[in-house]
Amino acid sequence: MSTISADSTLLPQSHSEQRRTAVLLSTGWLLTWIALGTPGLPLNLYLKNTLHLGAEAIAVFGLVAGFASYVKPIAGLLSDNLTLFGTRRKHYLLLSTLLGGICWLLVGVLPKTYSLLLFMQAVIMAMVMVASTALGGLLVDSGKRNNSVGRLSSQRYGISNLATLIVGPLGGFLASRAFGLTVGICAGCLILLAPLVFFFLHEAPAENPKKSSWKEIEQQLKSTLASRPLWWGLAMCCLLNIAPGFGTPLLFYQQDTLKLTPQFMGNLGVISGGCGLAAATIYFRLCSRIPLRRLLGIGIVLNVIGTLFYLGYQSPLSAILIEGSTGFVGTLAILPLWDLCGRATPRGNEALGYSLMMSVCNLMAALSNTMGSWFFEHLHWNFKNLVWLNAGTTALVLLIVPLIPAALIDRRDGDVAEKL
């Protein structure tokens, strides 16, 4: 490994480079999210119905397995500062996807005990985390060079919703079949990404590589942490995700109370993902026409309203309508936050800033789900109590918007940034 200068990424990309980057990012997000999202329902139902775990234990499994995603800034620091075989992104992507695919293949031959499943899922999550961080750095690199962070962020979220259209019904299908089929699909997605990165990511070797300098990494960390706008964005991500969640309690409610089949539960992802994809498409247009301040306020209010829709979650038909509406408004709520954090990240620290945002979102969501599952199992809160509490905490995000510097949020995507 060797350190590189961030100045090598300041020049605008040509149109062909922008197109190639956009295609690579789309393919990378799609394949990694299919590998990450497909086993969600099969694995949770395996833990619930075969290993007979309760809501809290399943939530804790997810919390521990996702540990690597809470320390993404480490991968961001490495990707921004230390080249791997002469590149900042390419070889991180190659090695992480190959190793992640191999680990999935190992899951297929190891015993399906709780401890082994937990360990292997933690390792796989670590590999996907490295790949995601490298992709995030590539996104912000390109976005800052071309004043298109908002549009690339909406593309990213649109692809995540497109992946949901696939993993929802696919997960429902696999939930009632041998787990080896799930293993093969997830391994194939990660391994397939490696040759695509090798042939399509044209990243020139770093110029004049120097010996690794932890002093430079320390400076990068200080400059990123000194960005007050970034901290406000991270605080908003915390409040949006920290309320006691109802993801795992919803799984129990769907199967035990509403008696929904695994296939129907998986198919709900198509509705949610399709509406989220539509919202991302709309945001792609709005972010270049409406200042970010207004988009933040609108998104948060809509997210609170969408959360309250879950109070009417009482039948298969209402499940379809609610999953669709919350998929739409949830996307409009989160995309301005991605845009804000991307804008607030200092130049040269793109992967670090992006990974900080991802870490906060992942950790808060996992803690939220665990907290809500504990309330559900030990305090006997019902599903609707958790919905009310979640909506109320989400509304607090509005209090932070006036505190963010106007130079950052009173402009549209594509406008020339002012110096903060």
Plain-language structure description:
The chain is mostly helical and 420 residues long. The protein has one domain (15-409): Growth Hormone, Chain: A, CATH 1.20.1250.20. It is 75% helix and 1% strand. It has helices spanning 15-37, 40-50, 55-65, 67-70, 72-81, 90-109, 114-146, 149-174, 179-200, 214-225, 228-242, 247-257, 262-286, 292-308, 316-344, 350-378, 383-395, 406-409, and strands spanning 2-3, 82-83. A two-stranded antiparallel ribbon has the order 1-2. α1 (15-37) packs parallel to α8 (149-174) and α5 packs across α7. The longest helix has 33 residues, at 114-146. Mean pLDDT is 79; it is low at 1-9 and 208-212.
Q: Given this structure, which CATH class is correct?
A: Mainly Alpha
Q: In terms of structural class, how would the helical and strand content be classed?
A: mainly alpha
Order of helices and strands: EHHHHHEHHHHHHHHHHHHH
Query: Into which percentage range does the β-strand content fall?
Result: under 5%
**How does the major sheet shape up?**
2 strands, antiparallel
Q: Residue ranges: pLDDT <50 for 5 or more in a row? A: 1-9, 208-212
Describe how the helices and strands are arranged.
Blueprint: E1 2-3, H1 15-37, H2 40-50, H3 55-65, H4 67-70, H5 72-81, E2 82-83, H6 90-109, H7 114-146, H8 149-174, H9 179-200, H10 214-225, H11 228-242, H12 247-257, H13 262-286, H14 292-308, H15 316-344, H16 350-378, H17 383-395, H18 406-409
Antiparallel strand pairs: 1-2
